[in-house]
Amino acid sequence: MAIPSAACPSSVGSTMRRLAMTALAAATLLLALPTAQAQVSGDGCAAAFPETGFGITRMAGPVEVAASGLSLPVVERFVTSVTEFAAILEEEIAPLDGVGVCLFADQLPIVPPDLGIDSNIPLRAVAFGAEDLLLVSAWSIGTVDGALLEGLVHIAQWRAVGGGYPEPLATDMIGWYVARVSNTTEIAHAVMLRANVGLREPMPANDWAAGAAPDTITWNPEFQYGGLGDFTGYVFAEAGSGVFADPDPAELARLDGEWRNALFDESGAVPGGSKGWIIGLAIAAAIVLAGVAIALYTGWVRRKILEEVREAAREGRTLGAVSLDEAEAPDVQATVGRSLSTGRRRRRDSRVRRRPARPTGTGGDDRDRAPSGREVGDGGDDVSSGGHTGDDLFRHPGFDADD
Fold it and tell me: Which domains does the chain show, CATH number per domain?
């Protein structure tokens, strides 16, 4: 029994030493955690802008959203958007824990010259990749969602590679994510297809890792930041999002070649150049020659008819309803030519009625008789008794009133 009693103090002391060491290690770990957190994201918007009162602070998944000068319903709407965007980007690019989103009612509390921007240009959106901060002005409510997504993509890219993301892939990715959320990716694809129409070969290769994205980007959300995004869409469809998390220049070059060839094939462009212009030129030439031939034929027919009229006039024959004695006059010949060319006969004056000649007097001669007042010209012309003045009474019955 003495053994146990003698052994107890030693066992208790050993246990106490182990507990003390464990507590010390735990305290050291707990003290180290805030420091590590501070290195990743600092203390968020409040620490970055201590003079700004952020009345509302909400967590949107792993992202902290702080708002100044905005109502709660508006902030809740943006929190919902950030939650949705963060879930997509964390799955496809990089984690976003500790990122801060600072929303302001109007102007951002940053001096533009500090970012190398003209002081006359108002700041509306700024994303700091290394500081894990996104600042967005809510002066135009309709543009805030797009600005939130654009800024979060930039920060996720920075985290994925630990620095500047390959350019121009970074810009193209931002544009594709915005188009993907708004369901407008087909518009960008159609633009690229039209750019290939008429090409003799696929577009030249593009080095998607030629540069590096800067730490800080500034833009006006009203005009959207980012590229068309069609290449990014092809990469996502063919290779998945793993390329976004770890972009390899060789892999990007391979995918670029496949993308350009696919666009060329889908656009319907002809290798070596289209020959359709030859058919178009032949059709245009045929139309011009047909017009010239019709004009020449019409002139020949007109000349032939006029020659027949002149020949008939010389022989004293009657042509249609016009006597050749009348056709000897140049103006009458022209009238006959027009009548024949148009295929119709000249109409008579509506005021003149034709009737058979009246019998003459006893001696067969009425020249000594006074005119009755209704007879003008020979006995076959009966002019209506309507009132006429001037030369209308003496107009030739074979002509129209408008001649």
Answer: 45-267 (1.10.390), 287-354+396-403 (no CATH)
CA distances from 203 to 193, 194, 208, 271, 275 (A): 11, 12, 14, 12, 19
Maximum average pLDDT range among 6-20, 241-255, 304-318, 383-397? 241-255
| Per-residue model confidence as pLDDT tens digits over 84-131 | 999 999 999 999 999 999 999 988 887 666 666 666 777 889 999 999
Residues 282-313: pLDDT tens digits?
A: 899 999 999 999 999 998 998 989 888 888 88
Residue 25: what pLDDT? 41
Nearest to 304 by CA among 346, 345, 340, 344: 340
pLDDT band with cut points at 50, 70 and 90 for residue 270: low
Q: How far apart are CA 60 and CA 97, in angstroms?
A: 10
The model carries a pTM of 0.59
> Residues of the chain with pLDDT > 90: what percent?
44
